[in-house]
Design a protein that fits this description.
single chain, 327 residues, mainly alpha, 3-stranded mixed β-sheet, 3 strands, cell membrane, transmembrane helix
Length: 327
Amino acid sequence: MENSTVNSLTLQLEGLSVSSSSRYPVFLLLLCSFVFILLANAAIVGLILTQRSLRQPMYLLFCSLAANDVMGNALLVPRLLADVLLPPSQRLIHFYECVVQAFATHLFCANSHTVLMVMAFDRYVAICRPLRYASIMTDRRVVQLTAGAWGAGLVLVGVLLGLTLRLNRCRTLIANPYCDNASLFKLSCDDAAVANVYGLAYTGLLLSSSAACIVLTYSKIAAACVSSSSRRLSGWARTTCRARTTCSSHLCVYVLMLLSGLVFVVLHRFPQHAELRKTAAILFHTVPGSLNPVIYGLQSKEIHRCLSKLVPVRRHRHHNQRKSSDL
């Protein structure tokens, strides 16, 4: 199917090269990861939305990150699960389904950067401008920042795929486990220089802007922490200490996302490691989506406090039910 009719609507996914003995273990691993991503992110979001003490800008912004993780994996992993059980010759995908998958993949990547940039701004205001935090990070401002983060991703990805979709296709093999922009413009026999240049600019803009935002905000946060350490534990310092607890969670999530993406990008430069590149492409979606709720759940004292309140209540109810049944 490498050389087929021009603009064919049926494409073939190369997918992962798995042996017959490892097919079902890989399937179970992907399935467990997918189920965990859905349940863990849904549990954290549900806890944040139902507990009044967690309805703070930082946790509400994390809900946006969790929604992005669920979206990025829900539109990708089910197709991967189906393809693992199929022989390579039967891994066919419709062109429009491939476009939707590529759009979701790049939107997931863009939103991971833009939402974390907004979360960095929130931490900067909480620590460096604590007295003005409530007036700056209002509910309306949180909605505006979230909409701006998702809107920026939609525009950037829309232009990215728009430049690729205008090209005529003379190939049908997607040399990847899922569809993305690079795989789509490689199907074309037209000059893809414009799409290629914009793709590089898009990647550079996301990486440089998010890295610059993180470095700038955390430099100011570090300076504020140094100055506050020499002061007495005033109300300002106590507020700063509480806000500081979520900084490590935010930095862990950002570094995890950045390393997952960089491994995938670096392996693109080594064609002899195609299978490692495919594995890294899948891990870029599943690893952050699995670990983000764990990182926030383990490092957030507020989430721990809310969970500790819920667990004793459930135990107490269970104990009362057992006593009543014994009577």
